[in-house]
Amino acid sequence: MKNADLPLRFSRTLRFQIGAALLALVVLFTLFSLYTLRMLDEQRAQGVLLRLAGELQATAQHMAMQAMNYAENRPRDNAAYERDLRLYFQDLMGNMRKFDDICKAFSSGDFSRQLQLHEPMKLPLGAATLAAATELELYWKGFMQELRQTLGEADMPHLSEAARLIVENNPSLLQRTRELLQALDDDLRKRARETGLVVRISFAAALVIATGIMFWFYRRVIRPLDRTVQGFREVATGNFSHRLPVESDNELGLLATTFNQTTNRLDTLFRLTAHLQEGSDLDETLEFVAREFPQLLPLDWVGALFVANDGLIQLEGAYSDGKPEQLGILRFPLANTLLQECLENGRPLHIPDIHEVATLNSSYRFLRVLAERHRRDAIFLPVATHGPLPGVLVFATRQPNAYRQAHLELLANLATVITLSFGRTLKLAEHARLAAIGQFITGIAHEIRTPLATVGMALDYFREKALSTAERQRLELAQREMARIDRLLSEVLLYARPLSLKTEKLELCPLLEQALESLAPEAGDAGVKLELQCEGGLQLTADPDRLLQILLNLVKNAIEAAAPETPVTLSAAEEAREVIRIAVHNRGEPIPEARMEQLFEPFFTTRANGTGLGLAIVRRLVEAHGGNIRVDSARERGTTFEVLLPGNPG
């Protein structure tokens, strides 16, 4: 397939080819017009020749008739002779000059004098005509010499002898004149036949050439354009697998190539999206990219790296030359690397010379891994930058300087779709992992609760015994830890089990007061003041126990995050019609932006003794009530968790 980025040679462009075809038509029309003008000139010349030949014959006949009239009516006295001298002799001399001029013109082929032209005009004469003209001229010269000798002196010519000579020689002169006329007529007929044949051949050739140009125009322009229009219609209906045949290397061929590249990219992208929507795992997705993306850009190595909670980035999978590549466990610090730069910028990052760039910084360990595998050029594409597992998709090739601006623009344009689709795969993989963990923990929780109950009974037994102060303290510590373990198991089971609500209509403000009263001792120990702001008359339909659990969890988290001697405010108000807003606010340290999206993910926690399930359970309970939860955190505003719940119609 021709590369759409390469320039076309001018001789192969439609501008040149159509221009050449039009020029050929113009040249053909010009030649035909010139030949037509030449034919018109020849027809005029043929008319001149026939007229002059007719004049020769008419002059010869006139001379014979005048001579016969003179011989029959000879002058009988001097007066009559003088009359004939003025009339017959002058007419005879004029006819002789006229015949002599025309005869010379035929023998020489120059008819300028007869046509009264200033420049010589050569009319084409055939060989037979020239031979007849030459024979006529020779005979005429001899006859004219004899006639002049017979006439004698011009002042007293012998008209009677001259008339007798003319009558005697006229048959021979007429015969030669007729031969000239016949030869000229045969020559002109032959030339007319040849001209007609040339005209027919020229017309046939022009018709063939014009038909050929029209066929070429249809085959090289009309048909490809029609197929291109049909291709766009196919794409408009959603058929991105449609391809156009590339039949030429001109602009239309370039258009077909570009169309095929575009549809190929769209088809690959949509198949990738469909592949990801089917819930494919990471290995299947990498295999698809390794198999299909070489149609879009140079690619013989692809890998996916994910950022872990410990700040390290790990290579989770890679394909080399379309096959899985086992590289073991590769984990690198993310700080001060090009991978970190790629994630922070959120745009594709091009590394044009891996071997050289890898030597610039000791932190570029992943680039050295690529360099060891003889990869020369690479592109880092950030994926799921705001998801639970930020990561980078790496495209690499052995070809130096393989990725051009067009490839970067392609990935930049497709980055959002690829990121969203690939991020969904990562989330599905993470959810599957969490589901497996949850199922495992649920089973473990059930298994642990039985021996824990036995241990609890044993601890209760020792409470009734007389113990020393130190032994009593250890017993109380053990009971508190038993209670914490039991609470943890309860949270795990609550998150893992199907959720059911026992809803009822209730007043909201008393429930908020109950939550603050329950946490007042913890707030006192932390030196935090609890404040309540609740509009009266707020009602909603909810499960009071589950709603109280939401409030206790959010307020307890706020107490732990708040700085000493600062307030924690629990407020409730009508946000909009039939929407109630419950907010918990504290002035503690703000939540980092990078962790905002992970707060509600299960098993994510920043506390050493946290379970990572509190906020996940809160979101699940809020959504079960038909509401949603959001968080806002900034140093100047503090941190606010907002719960929006549907209220009762007023």
Automatic annotation (TrEMBL):
A Pfam family annotated for this UniProt entry: HisKA
Transmembrane feature ranges: 16-37, 197-218
Reaction(s) catalysed by this chain's protein: ATP + protein L-histidine = ADP + protein N-phospho-L-histidine
Major location (coarse): membrane
GO molecular function, one term: protein kinase activator activity
Top-rank lineage group of the source organism: Bacteria
Annotated GO CC locations: membrane
Annotated InterPro entries: BphY/WalK/GraS-like, GAF, GAF-like_dom_sf, HAMP_dom, HATPase_C_sf, HATPase_dom, His_kinase_dom, HisK_dim/P_dom
Compartment(s) where it occurs, according to its Swiss-Prot or TrEMBL record: Membrane
Every HAMP domain range: 219-271
Keywords: ATP-binding, Kinase, Membrane, Nucleotide-binding, Phosphoprotein, Transferase, Transmembrane, Transmembrane helix, Two-component regulatory system
UniProt KW Transcription regulation keyword: no
Residues in Histidine kinase domain copies: 443-649
CDD domains with a match to the protein in the record: HAMP, HATPase, HisKA
Biological process annotations from GO: osmosensory signaling via phosphorelay pathway
EC number assigned by the record: 2.7.13.3
PANTHER family to which the protein is assigned, alphabetical: SENSOR HISTIDINE KINASE GLRK, TWO-COMPONENT HISTIDINE KINASE
Name of this chain's protein: histidine kinase
Lineage: Bacteria, Pseudomonadati, Pseudomonadota, Gammaproteobacteria, Chromatiales
